[in-house]
Amino acid sequence: MLASKEEEILEALRSVIDPEIGLNVVELGLIRNMDFENGKTRITMILTTPFCPYGPAMIDQVRQTVNTVTGGNSEIEIGSELWDPSMMEEGAGGDWGLF
Fold this sequence. Notes:
The chain is 25% helix and 18% strand. By secondary structure, the protein is an alpha+beta fold.
């Protein structure tokens, strides 16, 4: 069975690592929404802190990764939610002793 476009994108985004934390953007729960409209992929993501020094680089990596999977035409928006550890995938915070 073929994976959905969303599943394919999420799997690819596991290669985008937050360099300070060492976990990927999917594990951290930073990808908050994904829409497909008129051939454009629109992703809403958040950062672990509002002024994350790696934010611009991570956003660019997400955009490049999505474009690789979809063939281009993606838009990455920064959401207004504040990140907290409860957004992480189950088990992802085990090394931190969070869960």
